[in-house]
Amino acid sequence: MKQIRAFKEEFTYEERVEESREIVAKYPDRVPVVVERFARCDLPDMEKRKYLVPRDMSVGQFIHILGARLHLSPGKALFVFVKNTLPQTGRLSFLLTSILHRPRNIWTL
């Protein structure tokens, strides 16, 4: 399996800030999100890791989209962690607005 570098390792803080500002200016109703697979899981590699998530989308809706993109079998579980925390699936915009107000977290979950 090919080793993929973490987004924070691949791009400098300044590069992430610049890209985030451009994206937010162009799509103010969406939140830029980077999704990375946990290194020790057996999920297939994802085709893409950057998503523009509508601000009103719930965690459950986003997990459903990710599961569909990964073609998960019905018995396979998918968990999303935000800063080492498992957010409530019904929570709107899965804490993204508050996370984005912390400068060091630009483009990362």
TrEMBL record:
Q: What GO biological process terms does the UniProt entry carry, in alphabetical order?
A: autophagy
Q: Under which name does UniProt file this protein?
A: Autophagy-related protein
Q: What's this protein's family per the entry?
A: Belongs to the ATG8 family.
Pfam family membership, one = ATG8
Query: Keyword set for this entry?
Result: Autophagy, Lipoprotein, Membrane, Ubl conjugation pathway
Q: Which PANTHER family match?
A: MICROTUBULE-ASSOCIATED PROTEINS 1A/1B LIGHT CHAIN 3-RELATED
Record carries keyword DNA repair: no
Transferase found in the keyword field: no
Q: Where in the cell is it found?
A: Membrane
GO CC, any one term: membrane
Primary location group:
membrane
Q: Coiled-coil intervals in this record?
A: none
The record's subunit annotation is:
Interacts with ATG4.
